[in-house]
Every structure is written in C-alpha cells, then in structure tokens.
Here is the input.
Amino acid sequence: MLELSADLRQTTGRGNKQIRKQGFIPAILYGRKIKNLALSVKAQNFEKVYQEAGESTLIELKIKAAQKEAEKKRVVLIHEVAKDPVSDTPIHIDFYQVKMDEVLKAEVPLIFVGESPAVKEEEGVLVKNIQSLEIEALPADLPHQIEVDISSLKTFDNNIYIKDLKLPSRVKTEVQPKEVVASVIPPRTKAELEKLEEAPEEKIEEVEMVEEEKAKEEVREEAAEGVEPAKEAAPAEEEKAAPDKKRNE
Here is the structure.
C-alpha cells in the first residue's frame, strides 16, 4: 500500500497561503463517524503518490502527532483535489477515511489498449465516449484502472459497450450495460475538410448597427415607462474552489 505523511494543521483560511509558500498543501481528512482533521502534506511527496494512486487506490496516511503521542495511521482515498486555475498545481486535498468492511463508490479511469483495425487500416478516428467509470466495491477490491481492448473495433459499425468491459468479480457498476464506451468513425472526406477551411465572411458593421439600434430601442422603452436606464453591472468576482460545507475546516 502506498504511504504518505501528513502533519496536523492549526492554520486555516488565509493562513493556508503561507503553508503553500513553504511547499505544503492544506488538506482535510473526513469520513463516516470520525472527527474532521485539518492537515498539511508536502507538495512534492503528494504529487508522486497522486500520480501513482489517482483517486481509486488506497493510501496509508501517516499523521504526525504531538511529541508524546504515537503516529496515527489512517487508510484513505484521495477524494478530491482542488487545483489552481492558472498553474494547475494542487492547492487543497480532501482525504476520505474508508472502512474496510463497507462498500463504497469510486471513479476508476479507463485505459484503452490494443490496436483497432478500423483505425489502422481504414484511417478512422477513435471516439472515447467514456474516460472513467463509477464502480462499487469494498476498499480492498478497488481496481486502480480498467483496461478497454479496442482490437475488437474492426469496422465503423463496431462498438464497445459497458457490458463488454472485464470488471473484477467483486466490482459492480450501475452504468447501463448498453452504454457505448468507444467506437470508430470514418475519416472526413476531402470536401468536408475544404468546407471547414472556408472562413465565413463576417459583416461586422452590420452587426454593430443592429446592436446599437437594439440598445437605443431599450432606452426608449425605459424612458416611456419612466424608468432610468440600467447601469452596466460590475463583473462578478471569480468564484474560488472550496471544500463541501460539511467538511468545514
């Protein structure tokens, strides 16, 4: 089982900015019938574990306690990772403590393997309708990934369905068996490609005149009703990603 060390965190809110500057990521640990714990993990260590574990592999989280207390170990899943919209680096982590005797749901990535004759010989385009699958299983039975063999896609009429996936014996999914996972579509014709390359003519002046006339008409209607023209609304502030309310830090 993969291991990751974490520290108890006293700082919350704006203080998390300083934690990130020191090379750590703020985190929260929660689960059924357990007290939420505010934690921090070293960014470099987390990224290595996350790359290997994803969100469907069990991790042993080692929580460093006070000097006289023993180190606490929790079996967890990485439930959610909030990322910076610009740098795409993790800025907050949700760890979910599992109970080994309770079935849980998890998103497992689909890995497409093999070679499709319809792609190789007919120059078709592989279409992946589903990239991950929600499954149900005991924590110990959670697969890290599910392979999808595309070698069965020999013609443009072939499809791979949910029912065709080879799930482990103790893993279930509620997704409909006839839902399409992958298929191959024919390549675009020369005529279609030429049509896509044609740039549509934009009559900017006409569009501006229509918009200007529309604005004038709205002002006239408001004046007739004795209402002052509405001022332009200030742009809304960008919403920041935050953990669920039930996991308040």
